[in-house]
Amino acid sequence: MIAPHHPAPLRIGPVVVDPPILQAPMAGYTNFAYRQVVREFGGAGLLATEMIAARSAMWLESQRGENPDRLWGVRDEPRPLAVQMWDNDPDNLAQVGRRLAKDFQVSVVDLNFGCPVRQVTEKAHSGSWLLRDPDRVGMIVRRVVEACDGVPVTAKIRLGCSDACRTAVEVAQRIEEAGASCLTVHGRVAAEGFKGEADWGASAAVKRG
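The structure assignment produced for this chain is given below.
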């Protein structure tokens, strides 16, 4: 009989992810109810909320409104738990990151630089649109790392905006230099969306740096 394999835990800063499997943050899917089901079945060492828009969270706070529905249940959930957010303004992201770290006491603050959805890229110049500017990505990560004051900051990227603009290696270097604790690479360019096969070789090249 083959003995079960137990892979070593993953460490993201001080956070121990055991088993080393991360539940991806997916808009429209990974809400509180979904996370409860995943937690009940087990198998994921780190759960994540749906992606939130930093600007919307700030607006709600300025109007003294409730928190975004995508943060519903976060305060009372078991840890570890990550929250992913997007924007293109370092100040917005730093402010919301600080609140997630201090008020919500989340385990990980994740930054999305990989979303290919037009509403995020073309209209808001965020998500994967930012991959064309590695220096700005690095600046954003640095500001959020400083704001989160010890709570691990991670990032999600793609290989680039298009095949003609593959910037993942340079972007990853900027993210590492800025102090991020972990990086997730989607092995497609933004123009591909979710079609075709992921380019594992290109993802490995990002790891090698």
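Interim note for the steering committee: The beta strands are 10-12, 15-17, 47-48, 52-53, 81-86, 108-113, 153-158, 182-186. The first strand starts at residue 10 and ends at 12.
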